[in-house]
Amino acid sequence: MTWRLRLAELGGAASTRQLRAAGATDRALSAAVVSGELLRPRNGRYVVPAAGESLLAAVALGARLSCVSAARTYGLWGGEDARTHLVVPPKAGRSGAGDPGVVRHWRPCHDHAEIWRVSLADCLHTVGRCADQETAVAVFDTAISTGRITRHGLQHVFAQEPRRSRDRAALARPGSESGVESLLRQRLSARGHLIEQQVFVPGVGTVDFRVDGVLFVEVDGFLFHSDRLAFAHDRKRDTAMTLRGERRLRFSAGEVISRGEDVVDTIEAVLDRTKREEERALRRG
């Protein structure tokens, strides 16, 4: 393996020691910096120019991305917190600690080859301690749905964490293919509704939710209807549901995030109407 391949394997950032171990020489690294192939934001640290700003900032500070910032890099839900979360060694200085766009976590971490982000386990630990409960559970849900960890593995990771973090991890469930779906699941469950996820409907395919056994709900992602094929596909699914006589609702991810209470209220209004219709049908029968 060449040092360039090793650098890519490590996510685009590496230490001098790591690159030397992969065959790099000091002369080759210096030449790469001069040519613009590499950046050297900190002594002994090298980063590819295409690396994101948050990665570069973390390496420059001798820190690592953590919490929801690291969660996003693992392909998990990152919530609405746009700040950069960093974990720094407990004995690190506090230079720049007043930056409102950065959250610093002073805590020890497990050994991890990547110098720019914490391990998945440390990421989940920090999310469990730092994020609000809805966001934390959504991160855990997406960790399960993406195959990063199993539900049992999640409980093991949190076995030695504080009680509040363990309780949050215990709320995680498989089935949410996005953080937005997890948010809706949590809100409906908190209202006492029976939630089934990824329900297969013949002639339609897999539907995001079935609520209380009678109402199907789908949540369109942020790239909803980004092309005509997606639009046509969703209309075909809606038509198939109608022909089956199924009750259904469709919401956008933006609606779930920005008007979450309204979305839940709408679902409950349809459920109430459905219940009344069924009661009238029973009286007539």
> Main sheet?
4 strands, mixed
Radius of gyration: 24 Å
Average of the residue pLDDT scores? 91
Class inferred from helices and paired strands: alpha+beta
Unreliable stretches:
none
Major β-sheet strand ordering = 7-8-9-10
Proportion in helices: 40-55%
Helical stretch tally: 13
Number of strands: 10
The proportion of residues in beta strands is: 15-25%
Distance between the ends = 75 Å
String of helices and strands: HEHHEEHEHEEHHHHHEEEHEHH
Detail the topology: elements first, then pairings:
Elements: H1 3-9, E1 13-15, H2 16-21, H3 26-35, E2 39-42, E3 45-47, H4 53-60, E4 64-65, H5 67-73, E5 84-88, E6 102-106, H6 120-130, H7 133-145, H8 151-157, H9 163-170, H10 179-190, E7 195-201, E8 205-211, E9 215-220, H11 228-243, E10 247-252, H12 253-258, H13 260-284
Parallel strand pairs: 5-6, 9-10
Antiparallel strand pairs: 1-3, 2-3, 4-5, 7-8, 8-9
Helix pairs in contact: 5-6, 6-7, 7-10
